[in-house]
Amino acid sequence: GLSQYSSDPRTEWDLSTYSTREQVLEAMRNLRYKGGNTFTGLALTHVLEQNLKPDAGARLEAEKLVILLTDGKSQDDANLAAQTLKNLGIEIFAIGVKNADEAELRQVASEPLELTVYNVLDFPLLASLVSKLTWVLCTRIKERSHKETAGSTVKDTPPNTGPQLSPTDLKISAVTSKSMHLAWSPPLRPPKKYRVVYYPSKGGTPKEVVLEGAESSVQLSNLTSHTEYLVSVIPVYDTAAGDGLRGVTSTLPLSSPRSLRVSELSHNSLRLSWKAAQGATHYLVLCSAAPDGAED
Prior knowledge:
single chain, alpha+beta, Rossmann fold, Immunoglobulin-like, 2 domains, four-stranded antiparallel beta sheet, secreted, COKA1 protein
């Protein structure tokens, strides 16, 4: 579903209006931009009261996600309206463009903020968020769907999330150019297994590690240097599933040689020396004559 807002929110279409991807894309192509003021609190209240109702297509059992896209600071109390949604279990993702107030975005969005708050300098740069945001949203929905499906098959299993079935306190440490270490606090009821899923935020093939339920840490290796990775730790039970932990971090760039020195100069030779780059197995040395006017 989609709503636009200024001083008066307007529903463009409800959750139940279209049933195919092509219909949604066509509706998006025909969308007219609504200019005006920035009453974000009023818009969030509109979404709750109008767009997330069963007669607008909102299913009671489905995960409720709201993506707020704004290019300015709200002229009313967005935080109070956002807190009302979050208290009802609705997750809010906040995306700012141009003149958006990042402090306000962080107030409005749900935790963890490193996965729910985004800010870009101009509208064309929104394209750079698509892959990461898609991954985060789909992961959240899959986790919820898996939990609902598993929980509904066994009546004597309470649909309990939180400390009973879900791990907490994900810590990412010992990050290098090609590895990182994940650790977490296990739930009160140990799972049968953990699925650890990770891949670059800008797109790539997801990789997965499966651990026994007694484990609470894992070392991820053979990663790409200087790359932002999204990670999920998902507990798996025989008859139920807990919420997964999610995190994001970047591997370090490859280390560089330092302190380049030139010595033993002659008419046709020179010697170079440097401090070694950690982990390097070879060096490629390039040289060329300085252009006219530049220092030799």
